[in-house]
Amino acid sequence: MKNFYLVNTTTTSNSSDYTFSVTLNKEHRIYQGHFPQQPVVPGVCMIQMIRELAEQAAGRTLMYSGISNIKFFSVVDPTINSNLIIKLALDPIEDGGYSVKASIEFTDKTFLSLKGNLSAIKTSSEIDFSATDKVQ
Predict the structure, then answer these.
(1) Tens digits of per-residue pLDDT, 50-95?
(2) What's the pTM?
(3) N or C: which end of the chain has fewer CB within 10 A?
(4) Domain ranges of the chain
(5) Fold of the domain spanning 5-122
(6) Distance from C-alpha of 22 to C-alpha of 28, rounded to nearest angstrom
């Protein structure tokens, strides 16, 4: 999401736990439609932020292959809560992807918690285009 948020800091306590400090762009055009007089961060945007930050942590392109649990506890008003903490726990799984546990928070308030799986998307340089794959 271009210009939707800015990552201020990233910290990690080990190879799988990450904490991102982000600042929301209160002037982003998404709030013109969601909602002009009382802006609210759309849930889908929060889910997208988690995926993008997981990609940054993993160093590869990822997509959700499943979300087993997601809870929205409160709305995020970017005019009040523009600085957020996003916590991620990424653990490798068999298929080369990751299980993810994430939360979006502001001081002592949790807005969202998520548990799911992210699959790695292979780039063209990672795909084996061997002779057996060619059309005859």
Answers:
(1) 999 999 999 999 999 999 999 999 999 999 999 999 999 999 998 8
(2) 0.89
(3) C
(4) 5-122
(5) Thiol Ester Dehydrase; Chain A (3.10.129)
(6) 14
